[in-house]
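Input record (one chain):
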Amino acid sequence: MRPHLSWPVRILTASAALVAAATLVPDASAAPAPAGGVTVALGGVTRAVTAAPYPAAPPAGIACRTLVARSVTYSCVIGRSVEGRAIVATRQGNPASRRVLVVNGQMHGEEWPGTLVVDQIRALAITGRATYQIWTVRTLNPDGGRIGRRRNSHGVDLNRNFPDKFLRMSDSGPRALSEPESAAMVRFLTWVQPDLVISLHGYSTSVDTTGGGARAAWARAFSRAANITPAKVVSCSGPCHGNMTDWYSATSRVHGVAFTVEMPRSSKVVRRCGVPGRPASLSTIRCSAYAAVYLAARLPA
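The corresponding structure, as predicted from the sequence alone:
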């Protein structure tokens, strides 16, 4: 089992020597992986690692296929929307690594910046030489996203439909996980068991530190890197109930945590970016993509 993520942000900087091992390089420069294994670059030395992919074979309800691409090498249909649209998760990086980040791009259909962040992450050449793996879900609400509608086609706010502190209200659904979209995400996260989940929303321009501890530490680290401020407790309009980040943080078998990012409406505007080694001025969308990868490289080994 991976270690508990209760370290404060100091653990992120303390692992700076290991961070240099996380490589974002074009596929052309990646050494070929040995049969049954992957190559991992540590301190400039490439060594072969023979390990089974993580996680193991997908459970019932998730259908995956291997891709031949520069970066995205594994694609899974984790479920379908009310109207039958596929909800797709893709993987980049080292398939044997147990440092796992999940980025969800959209839960509310009118909140669009997160989908573009996922597009940017998927365009990065994160190869099997990385010391981590990143899974991305472009949209959990493809029906709402198609027409810019917050809720799914049943009129349910998906971020009120998860089991943690579920309350039956006008837009929460008749019961927890009544919606195929939220059930798909629970099935996916229960299978993958990421160390960290970043859920992208809009548009109050903040990063939610609700829950304190490791959850708040990772949220503050992302806030600094992506220059999305403030990092603070983001209150709900009414009681916070049935949301994804609370549910995963409370139930992860590997002590993983999840936090919410409220992207600004001006996410396409170029502004200061705080990710080390990246251009000082980038759009919030591009900077957030780099910030997600920056955190993935700093997950506890």
